[in-house]
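Page 37, continued from 36.
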C-alpha cells in the first residue's frame, strides 16, 4: 500500500484501540473506540480496493481526500479516554498562562477588543475546520497534487502527536473555568456559531497540545515551502487561528505554543523526505 497517509491513520487508530482496552475505561467506551477504528480501517481498505473499478484519476482523487474525512476519527477516539478533568492540571495550565501574559505585560481582562476584532478572531477560529481541506485544494490548483503524500505526512503526524499526549492531560478549556482570567470577547453571531459547533461535535475537553493549531501550522509550513505566495496566506491564517484560539479561551497559551512547536519539529523532521522523493 503505497499510501503513507493511510498507513499513518491505520496505525494510529489501531494503537488507540489497543490503548483503550489496556486502560480502565468503561466497556461502552472501549467498544466505541474499537467501532471508530473499524470504520476508519474499513474506509481505508475499501478505497484501496476501489483501484480495481475506478479509473486512475478518480482513484487518485478519492485516495487524496480520504484523510480529510478520517482526520477526526482519532479525535473522537481520544474523547472516549476523557473521564473527568484534573483540577491540578488545569491549575498548572492557568498558572502558566498568567505568567506568560504577565511577561508580555498583558492583563487579559483589561484588554479592549472591538466588535470587528472579535468577529475577525472568531472567523479565524472557524477556519480550523476548513484550512486542511483548503490546503489540499491549493495543492491541486497550483499543480502540486503529486506532493499530496508529503502534505498529509506532515499534517497527520503533527495532529496525531498532539492527540497522543491528550489522554495524559485531561482538562477543560479555559473559557469554561470560572477563575481563569479571560479576554473580554464581544458577543457575535460568529462566536455563537463556534460555540454551537463545539457543543455538538467536540469532545468537551481540550487536546493538549492543540491539534487544530498544530495541523493548521503544519499545513501552512508545507505550503510555504512548496509555493511561498500561497504559503504566506496560509501562514497568516494559521497564526490568526493560534491567536484566536488563546484570546477566545478555546485553549490555554501552553496548548498553542506547544502545538506550534510540534508542527515545526515534524516539519523539520520530515524536511528531507521531499528531496528524497
Amino acid at each position: 500500500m503505497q499510501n503513507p497517509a493511510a498507513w499513518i491513520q491505520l496505525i494510529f487508530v489501531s494503537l488507540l484501540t489497543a490503548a483503550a482496552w489496556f486502560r480502565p475505561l468503561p466497556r461502552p467506551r472501549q467498544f466505541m473506540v474499537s467501532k471508530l477504528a473499524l470504520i476508519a480501517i474499513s474506509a481505508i481498505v475499501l478505497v484501496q480496493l476501489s483501484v480495481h473499478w475506478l479509473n486512475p484519476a478518480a482513484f487518485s482523487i478519492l485516495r487524496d481526500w480520504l484523510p480529510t474525512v478520517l482526520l477526526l476519527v482519532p479525535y473522537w477516539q481520544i474523547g472516549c479516554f476523557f473521564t473527568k478533568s484534573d483540577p491540578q492540571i488545569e491549575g498548572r495550565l492557568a498558572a502558566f498562562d498568567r505568567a506568560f501574559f504577565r511577561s508580555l505585560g498583558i492583563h487579559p481582562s483589561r484588554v479592549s477588543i472591538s466588535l470587528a476584532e472579535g468577529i475577525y478572531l472568531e472567523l479565524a477560529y472557524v477556519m480550523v475546520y476548513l484550512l486542511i481541506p483548503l490546503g489540499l485544494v491549493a495543492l491541486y490548483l497550483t499543480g502540486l497534487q503529486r506532493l499530496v503524500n508529503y502534505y498529509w505526512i506532515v499534517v497527520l503526524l503533527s495532529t496525531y502527536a498532539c492527540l497522543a499526549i491528550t489522554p495524559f492531560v485531561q482538562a477543560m478549556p479555559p473559557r469554561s473555568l470560572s477563575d481563569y482570567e479571560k479576554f473580554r470577547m464581544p458577543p457575535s453571531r460568529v462566536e455563537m456559531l463556534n460555540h454551537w459547533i463545539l457543543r455538538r461535535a467536540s469532545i468537551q475537553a481540550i487536546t493538549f497540545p492543540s491539534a487544530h493549531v498544530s495541523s493548521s501550522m503544519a499545513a501552512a509550513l508545507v505550503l510555504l515551502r512548496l509555493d511561498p505566495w500561497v504559503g504566506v496566506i496560509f501562514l497568516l491564517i494559521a497564526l490568526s487561528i493560534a491567536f484566536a484560539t488563546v484570546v477566545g479561551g478555546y485553549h490555554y497559551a501552553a496548548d498553542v505554543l506547544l502545538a506550534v512547536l510540534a508542527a515545526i519539529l515534524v516539519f523539520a523532521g520530515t524536511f528531507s523526505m521531499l528531496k528524497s522523493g
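The mean pLDDT is 94. Flag for discussion at group meeting. The radius of gyration is 19 Å.
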